[in-house]
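# step 3/5: fold
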Amino acid sequence: MFFLRILIGALLAFVASGYPQDTAVSNASPVSSTPKLVRLFTATIHLGDDLPPIPIPAGQRIVANVKSGQLSGSGFSGTISGGVSIIDIVNNGQNILNNVRSYGTTSDGLPFLIDESGLGSSADDFARLIFSVGGKYANLTNQFIVTEATLSSDRKTVSTAAYVTQDR
């Protein structure tokens, strides 16, 4: 959790400082204020059994299927039907890199796909979500969405909260 707070603080400080100017973006204006995080949804995701660990340089890769899940919130609600979770554990477990792809339907029946990638520890994880969805949720495809996730001790359930960034 401490690591996550530092990472979010560093991210917000970077965004608040504006973007480096170069010739390709010389007309871009810097960010004028620190964005605020607004909760989009909370989720409970159920994982299947892990495959046997796959050796990778400096660690191992853990692959599990995403069996199901429920997302609920004022900004987005839906049901996860499936997907895959790929976790790279490196440097003797000190660094965890995650990539999760899940799919399902919104509460009003639209299909969606969520790509999540991030980093963290065995207790907490910080990631970015990228949505593929249409209809009234199409604006989510252009939003910067971050998550904080916690894996249960039996490695079968992930609890997460997703936040969208907004200008103050």
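# step 4/5: annotate
Residues 1-26 have pLDDT under 50 and may be disordered.
# step 5/5: archive (pending)
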